Amino acid sequence: MTIIDGKEVAAALRKEISVEVASMVADGKPAPHLVAILVGDDGASQTYVGHKEKCCNEVGFDSTIIRLPESTTEEELLAEIIKLNEDDTVDGFIVQLPIPKHISEQKVIEAIDPKKDVDGFHPVNSGRMISSLPSYLPATPDGILSLLKYYKIETSGKHCVVLGRSNIVGRPMANLLSQKGWDCTVTICHSRTKNLKEMVSSADIVVAAIGISEFVTGDMIKPGAVVIDVGITRVKSDKTKSGWKLLGDVKFDEVAPKCSFITPVPGGVGPMTIISLMKNTLKAAKKEIY
Ligand code: GUN
């Protein structure tokens, strides 16, 4: 059994990106510029945006964080987005989610110019992805594909069960794995799936993105399966300094001994998602897609 080291893969890809950025800059081109809009003061979002800024610095990107108060209106946020759409010094930008409830997430996503939508959430980008056209891929599925590639995990003809049908993880993941080049046979399971346990038991590859901590147990896993854990549930813990710990969607201690490969939480999929954002921003700066 191999524990997939997301930190190692992320470091390797970060290095590749920084070499490419250094060569762009040496050629007299501007460094890629990523902007993040953060609305309100959600603690987890502040941490994520901080990590994104740090990663930008590491790979040589310019980065800007626009912090807006919780009281920002939908019109004000949309106006900010339009400004960034028109700003030639900005290659790509994201609006960190969640946003306050009085603002429509869908309106915000659709207001972003698809050319600058480095989250890959705009329907133009998801539509292009589904049609196997070049697009900005959503960070978590793209990060998982990078892990599979790095560890040379065979996917062709394998049965992959994706647990969860969210717009940003489950469905794009299922779609990408079914595409040419990955060639999986994919089943999506969700809260209404009747024979979920049997489905998972028949999987060669399990992607757990159901949002329920330790949902996948050892008895569900076919010996030799590859298990990718997307879950990140914070739970209180008296064993850590911070007073909380992260749990995945997989009961790691039970599942790991049965697997060929497994991602831990933390340190598996998590570190890869920021790298995918950096890859998309680099593509935007190089005008590789549009
Ligand atoms: N909140 C949690 N994950 C993400 C992400 O990938 N992009 C954005 N914009 N917000 C998030």
Explained architecture:
The protein has 290 residues and is an alpha/beta fold. It folds into two domains: 28-113, Leucine Dehydrogenase, chain A, domain 1 (Rossmann fold, 3-Layer(aba) Sandwich), CATH 3.40.50; 139-269, NAD(P)-binding Rossmann-like Domain (Rossmann fold), CATH 3.40.50.720. It is 39% helix and 17% strand. It has helices at residues 6-26, 43-59, 74-86, 105-111, 123-130, 139-150, 170-178, 196-201, 252-255, 270-285; strands spanning 2-3, 33-39, 62-68, 92-95, 159-163, 185-189, 205-208, 226-229, 233-236, 244-247, 261-262. The strands form three sheets. Strands 1-11-8-7-5-6 form a six-stranded parallel beta sheet. The chain has a three-stranded parallel beta sheet with strand order 3-2-4, covered by helices on one side. Strand 9 (233-236) and strand 10 (244-247) form a beta hairpin. Helix 6 crosses helix 10 (270-285). The radius of gyration is 19 Å and the shape is globular. The model has no long low-confidence stretch (mean pLDDT 97). The structure holds guanine. Guanine binds next to strand 4. Residues 94-97, 119, 139 line the site of guanine (GUN).
